[in-house]
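User: New here, please read:
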Amino acid sequence: MQISDIHIHPVSVPRVYNTSVAAGGPLGGKDYSHYYLLEFETATGLRGLGEISDIEESWAVPAPEILRETLLAPLAGADVRQRLPTWERVDEVLPANYHPEFRNLVSSAVDTALLDLAGKYYSAPVHALLGGQYRDQLAISWVAYIRSAEELAEEIQEKVDAGFTAFKLKVGADFELDCERVRVFRHIAGPDAYLKADASGAWNEEEAIDRIRQLSALGVDAVETPLQQISRAIAKDRPEEINSDPDAAAAALARVRDAAPADIIEHVADFDDTFALALLRHKAVDVFNIVPVQAGSLHRAQRLIQIAEAGGIAVLLGSTVELGIGTAAALHLGIASKGVTISSDLVGPGLLTDDVTAPRLAYQNGHLRAPRGIGLGVSLVPALIEKYRTP
């Protein structure tokens, strides 16, 4: 059962509102998310889907036809039953001058499409290929971006009414507004809702300690990516700054964790495994945020989950705002992973106005279920691909 062709579909889908984060994250608000959707085809008609998620315009990504040529060389004739060696061949030939985030996303999309094909070949859901079904649904944390307190109030009330009990607020741009928004959140969601504050790397150590103490007093349970030296911009654009000296970054986080009353959450998928191991050595965090599409493959995301389990660290699955393919892949991983114990940030189905796959994933009382069926369980809808296709 061999791969005979590859198709790449470029699409852009609107977000439900303009989403903004602190300066440590991607600059400027987003009205749209841009994607390349991969479709691997076999001579027998099987099709495997992968997703290059939430592409940034600054990455200077290759045109779809050029990327197709790059991928087709190692993939043409590949046996769908040999997922790992096939993925390794692709990973080895991806150009070194790709933007580091884009390279990880391409590698992950290839792995997802190979898994989807393997699931269809074996007539099994993807989670069965990742170890089997540990749970039947995944708890989701709704993510609210930086906007006015009045807009936040409406958003949180809507999500509370829909059954969400875990939330993340993007913070770090205006601390007075951050505090006001936390107060608004607690007034609406009540004292028992779980609340994370994500600073995207907005603060230095002294600021982080002071502000986490104040946010904790207002009812924040955990703070994600507090430090400038591990900002999301560095993680996406310059991960080598952390990879070259992971202990320095981990030690800084450990100092914040020792002085701050809230749990500390940090991303690990963008960086080498050495960073995750350094976080364990320094007892620097309470939770790993693992974004499956940023890990380079679902099998590496699984490895990071297992590293966390071995070190007694909780895990949540993060998001770059994926469409149905990327969200389904993350869901299958979460369904199969005992170590995912914190509500995950898979917000694509709610933050995007539409999708290009069927069935469209929908929240049920703050949870998502993996699609039924074989492989990922989702299929492309040609009319929606054409509706959102970009030049």
